[in-house]
């Protein structure tokens, strides 16, 4: 029970962090049709910026300024890069962002080196928040959840309750009509792209010190957020939310469990030894297999429900 | 029987290609050149097989290394078993084993990935790549874990006394397979399947209306592409005598994408150029600088922005101009733009190398670049290189304006001539 509660909380906080990443990606994808391959790279940049700022000024300054800096870079990239390749179609855009991801990783290698940097949780957020059934829950995890939920609510408010949100939502489906009404749609695109990346940067600020800040962090998270988008259904924000929580919990629970097929076979009376056919497969523990579970889920989803959890169309 | 005129140009071109393969090792002598050319041959097969997806089928894949890598793993096990005498498999036929393994995994994985097209296909291939990569590390019994699996190509049966101990023999093995694969892949583009793949790439909706199942066309195209990827994987296993997790990594998949794109994916021969440039880039630059991947990435992004047809399109664009004899007018503007680009590159390289020097604490900040000694901690070299970069970019813009003015005038002339001819 205690294990279950703690893992559930951890899973939700990880899932919310994933959603911070996928929300920006999904928003940009449904608005501009651009799948930003470099999205996770901006998560990494956010973490490195936050590390640099918190080393000089403090964590809170990093929390405020790193996402803004990442968003500004995003807007510049949209204006001077993405808009150029837009005329060559979506695959060209995807290739451009792929090249960008490549470049960002190399720049991080060049500037901060190949090893992890010591970006740590600030002292005031270090330590236990509360204890449930004897085990302590870290304050920082709670803080992560708080930031993620605050971000979620503010996105929702911006999209549904403000004029800007109204224009963005309208441009999602009827960009030409919105343009005909006199709104500068390319500028809306630029702002949404920058905003989406700022969210990724924010996720980097709070995720970088909770996990690890190294040049491999983008490559570790990038494929998972793609999986979430596929599992949730392309372009569906709600689908991305459920898929994020599902995968967050799935991975977190799996890491904590050391079940294997061998145990299962033992229950029905078959003992697995090293001589059994496929012994290596049966003896793999769930905790070892945790990294592949999101991808397995994606494959299963594609076989049984190709449009994803909340996807609207096949194709 | 249908009468077809003999396509002389095509026979000359393929004959010349075969001749280049035969003559190359005797022109470029030395061990380094030979290893480079062997790697180029392997990369050419890989890049062409990749282009069966991207160029001919419109499928952008981020996980093509799955097929070459798994093909290489099966090949390395087959080679080891043959070395122990389990079955009489000569090394020369190992690429066939790798290819069949690639085909097998193409059938399994292709069934899942080709359910979708376009951007979704790209995401799924990436997910699948991660899945396979993680599995390779999870089962060290078969895949050898981080260290990989080593082999010895000379232990296998050696008919006619060819045991592939000498690098030249390996080169010719690669050359023969490379030439055969090139021919086969080109022939495939001429078949109804190849044409349908183009149709599915250009307009899937219409292809469906004509009565083709687009998913099925993509699936077959991917299976065949996986076969050739497996061939290249098996050849790399023969060449390096080791297969490790790196063979199925995202780095390998990204590399082949870069190579195919830089060469020019809209053209059949584009990836051949790309593979040669890529291997050369990797071998020549990696010796000089640790930042070679950054330069390669910048080159790639520059190509995406300004030359989406790759090197091949840049070359092909010049032919009509040459034909009407007006290339000479472009010679000076081109030279000017080239010189300006060199200035900009010099400035950029200076800044990148200084950043690298300062970030790597194990190196001293005293460095030599372009024959100049300086200290990267001083401000002067920073200003110098920044000014060089800015000046280079400014000059490049000026030169570019001159080039495009001439270019447009010539295109005008070309169009007028075409109209006059019609």
Topology:
The complex is a heterodimer of chains A (315) and B (422).
Chain A (H helix, E strand, L loop, with lengths): L1 H31 L6 H18 L2 H27 L4 H23 L15 E5 L2 E4 H23 L1 H11 L1 H6 L4 H26 L6 H16 L4 H20 L4 H7 L11 H5 L2 H4 L3 H12 L11
Antiparallel strand pairs in A: 1-2
Helix pairs in contact in A: 1-5, 1-8, 1-9, 1-10, 2-3, 2-4, 2-8, 2-9, 3-8, 5-6, 5-8, 9-10, 9-14
Chain B lengths: L7 H20 L3 H27 L7 H20 L9 H20 L4 H21 L1 H4 L5 E2 L16 H24 L1 H11 L1 H7 L3 H27 L1 E2 L6 H14 L6 H17 L5 H15 L3 H14 L3 H33 L6 E4 L2 E4 L3 H43 L1
Antiparallel strand pairs in B: 1-2, 3-4
Helix pairs in contact in B: 1-7, 2-7, 2-10, 2-11, 2-12, 3-4, 3-10, 4-10, 7-10, 8-9, 8-10, 11-12, 15-16
Instruction: Show unreliable segments of chain A.
Output: none
Number of domains of chain B: 2
Structural class of chain B: mainly alpha
Secondary structure: helix percent of chain A: over 70%
Which protein chains are joined by the largest interface, and how many residues does each one contribute? Answer: A-B, 47 and 46 residues
Q: Summarize the main sheet of chain A.
A: 2 strands, antiparallel
Find the count of extended strands of chain B (DSSP E, 2+ residues). Answer: 4
Q: Assign the CATH architecture of the largest domain in chain B.
A: Orthogonal Bundle
Rough shape of chain B?
A: globular
- Cross-sheet strand order for the largest sheet of chain B: 1-2
What would you call the quaternary organization?
A: heterodimer
Return the average pLDDT of chain A rounded to an integer.
84
Give the strand order, joined by hyphens, for the main sheet of chain A.
1-2
* Rg measurement of chain A, Å: 21 Å
